[in-house]
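TASK: fixed-backbone design
INPUT:
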């Protein structure tokens, strides 16, 4: 697993198949289910498939993807943050999710601002977007703090979910 970057309190690295238990915990947390949706990842085998077909595949195809976010002290996994290339968006988008027990401590801004700087400076991505449910106030507040601007609404392909589209 390759380390991507570090902040004062966090280490951001590529996911490995050894992270399956964390994926199960995060993808079934209340915030994920409410704001992102049920990905039907409940077993180790399903988590491994999610990692192989999602983040790990994206690293090979795009040179970036969703990354594991750990506390530097003790390497405790707390979140996922990274850059995603989606077929239906013009630009790659930033994605993030945090375990509930680590919310409200500044970790979301710390990880997202570091990933945004990495995308700009290291990956040379000149424009990023973000998609979010209108009722996801925490994510919208974070996007505003990161200087993303609302652009329009889109319907997520294959669903009836209307999302707000932001760009930086």
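OUTPUT:
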């Amino acid at each position: 697993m390759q380390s991507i970057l570090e902040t004062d309190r966090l280490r951001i690295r590529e996911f490995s198949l050894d992270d399956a238990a964390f994926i199960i915990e995060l993808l079934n947390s209340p915030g994920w289910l409410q704001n992102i949706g049920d990905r039907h990842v409940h077993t180790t085998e399903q988590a491994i498939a999610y990692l192989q077909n999602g983040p790990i595949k994206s690293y090979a195809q795009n040179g970036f993807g969703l990354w594991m976010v750990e506390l530097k002290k003790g390497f405790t996994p707390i979140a996922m943050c990274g850059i995603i290339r989606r077929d239906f968006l013009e630009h790659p988008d930033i994605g993030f999710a945090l375990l509930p027990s680590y919310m409200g401590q500044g970790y979301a801004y710390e990880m997202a601002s570091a990933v945004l700087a990495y995308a700009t400076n290291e990956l040379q991505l000149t424009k990023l977007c973000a998609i979010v449910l209108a009722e996801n106030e925490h994510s919208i507040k974070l996007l505003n703090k990161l200087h993303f601007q609302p652009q329009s609404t889109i319907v997520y392909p294959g669903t009836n979910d209307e999302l707000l589209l932001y760009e930086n």
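COMMENT: The first strand starts at residue 3 and ends at 6.
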